[in-house]
């Protein structure tokens, strides 16, 4: 028996969301008294994969084959199902990120395994039954899902738990050679368009976001500076991207990206429900707004009622001081 | 080309969320139900745009009881040709996907377009499940979709950028923003929707893989701490020492 986690590589590194999934898998394995195994598809450096040991993974099944470098949900489902059989996995864990969602739901069908999408806590086992919590209604409530199928699948909401690392621990990396046919490949990648030099919003731990309160695109200099100082990604509200003050890929909310960073700083954003739907899973929310009645304050952990044009430059200065001292 | 679009019925985003029966059921009292936004804005509209350009048929499918009529009529008013309603309570994603896959097989569809995720369960499960049940390819996070000679060209969002990929039909596509420009039904559409066929069919099987044991509302409203705009250094200190996020 084992717990198998699906781990993804991007630009030679293990995705942050996958580290969390692997850690979650290790915690589940621990509670079941079994082994934590990870599966990695595509080329990757064995030394990098061995570091999964730091989050409790004992063994990595590595299909080191360049044909698997591009995400293909049908192919990946087949490969992960085979890895699950090889490892004797009773629980499969993935990240609740775009690829994780798609393979988990496919695996649920393939293995007739009950699947909980977007768990925010570790599961509780009673005999063969598992109960785990996930958020529903865009974070306005939670639901406890019960799964009693033989194999169970959980995808983990990003930033739900912080992996505790055992420095220096290594996982054994084993070659995994699944059987594939040409017909298993269903996707041909024609071109890739990466936004370079910035932190992808969905992977960022810290996000600095601004809205219509900034008055115009010429005022984003201080937002970018704050983000750069903090090593944060930048985001914006929808009206701001609608009028092209900011690029569309920065738009968060019900109609844009859903993000769950550790820290979301909202500057000059009113906090409309459609905006909150995309960010209220953030661990800590800071709101800076001139209007003390702005709805965003109701969803915030820390608030400053004040003018962004005065507060943000001060925040940059204070952050610089903090960085110099730490 | 025959396109199938699954549509879900969800509470409007601004709804007050409450539960009944010992927190085991959603309380629909006073709640306005709507078509799931990404199903409507992107999936249904893109299907109709494709049909307008290259012909074919757009069918919407909904798993739900008779009170879903307004949601189905809206899709028809937007321009879908006909609808299928599987007369059952959609309590489990696998169950829903199995109903849709069964109808997709019977109707010999070329393409299924789903929305990004429903705003009630926020899961994005059904699209992938349908694809696996049919043994079709599936691509999610798609912001552009063109079809030519039985091949789909799609732009998909990946971490930190986009990829353009090609996939042979039939397939399942998960729609994202930018795939289509949302439409509002016009008078002609609303009138013609009344005459369009809605087939009501029973569920094919009753296999469910998960159960929602109960719901919970957040423990309490967040306790906000206010910091004076003249003491911004305090915010940095709290983020470091108390919240431990920097
Ligand atoms: C169906 C639908 C879907 C939507 N989807 C989204 C979505 O995905 N994402 C999204 O963001 N929105 C979405 N919206 C729009 C949403 O309802 C709000 O209109 C939008 O979020 C408001 O953006 P804002 O907060 O930037 O602007 P405003 O609401 O105009 O707020 C500006 C804020 O800035 C403050 N302010 C002004 N000057 C200053 C200053 N000098 N310093 C500090 N603060 C200042 C003001 O007090 C105010 O609170 C959607 C709406 C609908 C109807």
Protein described:
The complex is a heterodimer of chains A (326) and B (246). Chain A is built from 8 helices and 18 strands. Chain A is 28% helix and 29% strand. Chain A is an alpha/beta fold and 326 residues long. Chain A has 2 domains: 2-184, HUPs (Rossmann fold, 3-Layer(aba) Sandwich), CATH 3.40.50; 201-325, 3-Layer(aba) Sandwich (Rossmann fold). Chain B has a single domain (2-218), classed as 3-Layer(aba) Sandwich (Rossmann fold), CATH 3.40.50. Helices cover 28% and strands 30% of the residues of chain B. Chain B is built from 6 helices and 15 strands. In chain B, the strands form 3 sheets. Chain B has a 9-stranded mixed sheet with strand order 11-10-9-12-8-1-6-7-13, with helices on both faces. Chain B has a two-stranded antiparallel sheet with strand order 2-5. A two-stranded antiparallel sheet of chain B has the order 3-4. Chain B is globular. Chain B starts with a strand and ends in a 5-residue tail after the last helix. At the A-B interface, helix 3, helix 4, strand 7, strand 9 and strand 10 of A face helix 1, helix 3, helix 4, strand 9 and strand 10 of B. Strand 18 of chain A pairs parallel with strand 15 of chain B. The complex binds flavin-adenine dinucleotide.
Quick tags:
heterodimer; A: 326 residues; Rossmann fold; five-stranded parallel β-sheet; 18 strands; globular; B: 246 residues; alpha/beta; nine-stranded mixed β-sheet; two-stranded antiparallel ribbon; 15 strands
């Amino acid at each position: 028996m084992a717990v198998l986690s699906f781990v993804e590589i991007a630009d030679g590194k293990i995705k942050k969301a996958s580290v969390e999934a692997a850690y979650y898998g290790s915690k589940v394995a621990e509670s079941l008294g079994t082994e934590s195994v990870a599966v990695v598809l595509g080329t990757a450096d064995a030394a990098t994969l061995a570091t999964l040991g730091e989050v409790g993974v004992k063994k990595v099944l590595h299909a080191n084959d360049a044909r698997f470098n591009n995400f293909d949900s049908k192919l990946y489902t087949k490969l992960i199902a085979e890895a699950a059989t090889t490892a004797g996995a009773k629980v499969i864990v993935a990240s609740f990120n775009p690829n994780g969602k798609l393979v988990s739901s496919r695996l649920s069908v393939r293995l007739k395994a009950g699947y909980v999408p977007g768990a925010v806590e570790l599961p509780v086992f009673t005999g063969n039954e598992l109960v785990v919590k996930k958020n529903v209604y865009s974070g306005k409530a939670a639901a406890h899902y019960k799964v009693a199928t033989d194999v169970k699948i959980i995808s983990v909401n990003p930033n739900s738990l912080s992996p505790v690392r055992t420095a220096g621990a290594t996982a054994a990396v084993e070659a995994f050679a699944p059987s594939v046919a040409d017909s298993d490949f269903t996707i041909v990648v024609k071109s890739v368009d990466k936004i370079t030099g910035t932190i992808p919003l969905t992977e960022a731990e810290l996000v600095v976001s601004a809205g219509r309160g900034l008055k115009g695109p010429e005022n984003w200099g201080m937002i970018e500076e704050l983000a750069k100082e903090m090593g944060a990604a930048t985001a914006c509200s929808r009206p701001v991207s609608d009028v092209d003050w900011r690029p569309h890929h920065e738009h968060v909310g019900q109609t844009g990206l859903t993000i769950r960073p550790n820290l979301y700083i909202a500057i000059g954003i009113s906090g409309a429900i459609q905006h909150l739907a995309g960010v209220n899973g953030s661990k800590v929310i800071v709101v800076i707004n001139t209007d003390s009645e702005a709805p965003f304050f109701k969803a915030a952990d820390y608030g400053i009622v004040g003018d962004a044009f005065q507060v943000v430059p001060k925040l940059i200065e204070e952050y610089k001081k903090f960085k110099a001292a730490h | 080309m025959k396109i199938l679009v699954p549509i879900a019925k969800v509470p409007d985003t601004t709804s007050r969320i409450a539960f009944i029966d010992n927190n085991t059921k959603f309380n629909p009292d006073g709640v306005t139900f709507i078509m799931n936004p990404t199903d409507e804005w992107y999936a249904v509209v893109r299907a109709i745009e494709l049909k307008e350009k290259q012909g074919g048929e757009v069918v919407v499918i909904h798993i739900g009881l008779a009170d879903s009529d307004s949601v189905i009529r809206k899709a028809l008013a937007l321009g879908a040709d006909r609808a299928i309603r599987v007369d059952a309570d959609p309590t489990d994603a696998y169950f829903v996907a199995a109903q849709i896959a069964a109808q997709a097989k019977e109707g010999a569809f070329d393409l299924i377009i789903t929305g990004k995720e429903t705003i009630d369960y926020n899961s994005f499960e059904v699209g992938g499940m349908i694809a696996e049940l049919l043994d079709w390819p599936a691509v999610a996070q798609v912001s552009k979709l063109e079809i030519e000679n039985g091949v789909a060209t799609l732009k998909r969002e990946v971490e930190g950028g986009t990829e353009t990929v090609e996939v042979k039909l039939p397939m399942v596509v998960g729609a994202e923003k930018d795939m289509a420009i949302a439409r509002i039904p016009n008078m002609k559409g609303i009138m013609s929707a009344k005459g369009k066929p809605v087939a009501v069919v029973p569920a094919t099987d009753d296999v469910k893989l998960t159960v929602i044991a109960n719901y919970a509302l957040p423990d309490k409203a967040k306790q906000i701490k206010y910091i004076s705009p003249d003491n911004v250094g305090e915010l940095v200190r709290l983020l470091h020492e108390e919240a431990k996020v920097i």
